[in-house]
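Customer escalation, tier 2.

The customer says the design service returned an amino acid string that "doesn't look like it belongs to this structure." They asked us to rerun it and document both sides in this ticket. The original structure tokens are below, unchanged.
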């Protein structure tokens, strides 16, 4: 397992930069992005981030982005008007938009039922290496048992619906009510596990997790870490706090 060190200053280790002033709508975000061309390392200084799904997990994720004043688009099945209360509650860094708009972002969080993923990403343009963060769990209801996926990691199936995207599994192990609260807890930081088959994508998502104030723990590939992380694996529902080692007095 690799625990990436926290960035020395926000955004210093990647293209995630300090939170810009909130954008008023999705078009303004797109315009901002266009006005920040790639730097000499090919990095863009502003990344657009979207969450698809505004239920328990989507709302909790949006709350964490709002806490750090990071612009994020939020979309659901019913459309932007249905998100007015959440936007009012979380503030100006949250922009309600359509699913089609959200699907154009650099980073797309999937916070929808596992069985709805295919429908939710239907209108996506070419993924071209953009990041997808899979927060779903494959669960059979009402039995509340892991869905039989023929032994395949659930995020592998999600990845098949977004060809060309770099897919990372994250934020699926913590109950929504816990995910929503301040990750600084009991002298440490709440752990968010991640896994994926693209090490660069894992590192980018780990940086974002750390920027939100969580401790990122990279579990490696989906065939290994993904299985531990997914519903039915060893890690769901654990609420782990990473603390610096205690000092011993001799
Ligand atoms: N709840 C938890 O504690 C928890 C913890 C970890 C992981 N998860 C996983 O996170 C995912 C979301 O769970 P949840 O509890 O947040 O579910 P939820 O409260 O039922 O919310 C689901 C959201 O998905 C949206 N949605 C459904 N189909 C869609 C589609 N085709 N296009 C766009 N949006 C669509 C819904 O839109 P509308 O609002 O318009 O209906 C709703 O906002 C699930 O895969 C779940 O297993 C949940």
């Amino acid at each position: 397992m690799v625990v990436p060190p926290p960035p020395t200053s926000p955004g210093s280790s990647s293209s995630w930069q300090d939170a810009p002033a909130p954008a008023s709508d999705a078009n303004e975000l797109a315009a901002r992005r266009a006005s920040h061309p790639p730097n000499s390392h090919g990095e863009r200084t502003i990344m657009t981030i979207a969450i698809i799904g505004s239920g328990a997990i989507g709302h909790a994720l949006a709350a964490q982005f709002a806490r750090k004043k990071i612009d994020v688009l939020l979309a659901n099945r019913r459309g932007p008007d249905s998100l007015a209360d959440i936007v009012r509650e979380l503030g100006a860094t949250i922009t309600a938009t359509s699913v089609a708009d959200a699907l154009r972002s650099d980073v797309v969080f999937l916070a929808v039922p596992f069985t709805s993923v295919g429908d939710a990403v239907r209108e996506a343009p070419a993924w071209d290496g953009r990041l997808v963060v899979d927060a779903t769990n494959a669960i059979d209801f009402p039995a509340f048992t892991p869905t039989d996926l023929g032994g395949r990691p659930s995020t592998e199936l999600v990845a098949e619906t977004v060809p060309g995207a770099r897919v990372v599994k994250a934020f699926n192990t913590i109950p929504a009510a816990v995910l929503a609260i301040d990750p600084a807890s009991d002298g440490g930081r709440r752990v968010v596990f991640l896994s994926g088959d693209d090490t660069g994508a894992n590192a980018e998502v780990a940086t974002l997790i750390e920027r939100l104030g969580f401790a990122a723990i990279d579990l490696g590939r989906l065939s290994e870490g993904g299985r531990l992380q997914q519903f039915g694996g060893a890690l769901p529902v654990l609420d782990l706090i990473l603390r610096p080692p205690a000092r011993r007095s001799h």
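Tier 2 assessment: The sequence is consistent with the input. The longest strand covers residues 188-195. The first helix runs from residue 26 to 34. Sent an explanation to the customer and offered a walkthrough call.
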